[in-house]
Specification:
The protein is α+β, with helices and mostly antiparallel strands. The protein has one domain. It is built from four helices and five strands; from the N terminus they run ααββββαβα. It has a five-stranded antiparallel beta sheet with strand order 4-3-2-1-5. The protein is globular and about 40 Å long. The termini are far apart. About 20% of the residues are buried.
């Protein structure tokens, strides 16, 4: 890990867990999802470490396209089932509110970034933009969230 990475405010997985447990707050990591042209991000995967109502550590995994509140994934994963690939990510300390999970994915990211105390002057103000939601019939391919297609029975 480079010195720049060590001093950028992000936490290793283990340090993020310690932060969540000790401070009773959250930590998040976000990854863009690129389209076929590999140049334009079309959505994001967000990983939020926090505590459930009983105080147990969990991972909230959310993925979906930008400008839609219809997520391709919105899963809660218990601590003992967190995949190794997530353990390799670096997390930003933040706080999170349950009602944020009904926002469009870019608004959720904006709120997480702002709650982390990161300067957001370079980010568009997605929260106050007019929006159009996907209807209940919207379906996203499972490959969008990085999972394998289910096996045919």
């Amino acid at each position: 890990m480079s010195n720049t990475q060590e001093n950028d405010g992000r936490l290793s997985f283990d340090a993020a867990i310690a932060h969540v447990r000790q401070k009773k707050q959250s930590a998040f990591a976000a990854m863009p999802v690129f389209g076929d042209d590999e140049e334009t991000a079309e959505g994001a995967r967000i990983f939020i470490l926090d505590n459930d109502d009983e105080g147990d550590l969990r991972l909230r995994f959310i993925a979906g396209p930008f400008f839609s509140a219809a997520y391709a994934a919105n899963d809660v994963i218990p601590a003992d089932e967190i995949p190794d690939s997530v353990r390799e990510l670096r997390f930003m300390p933040t706080h999170c509110e349950e009602d944020w999970f009904s926002d469009q994915i870019q608004v959720l990211i904006q709120k997480l970034v702002k709650a982390a105390g990161i300067a957001t002057e370079q980010m568009p103000d997605y929260q106050n933009m007019s929006s159009h939601g996907a209807g209940p019939e919207a379906v996203f391919p499972i490959s969008f969230i990085g999972r394998n297609e289910p096996a045919a029975h």
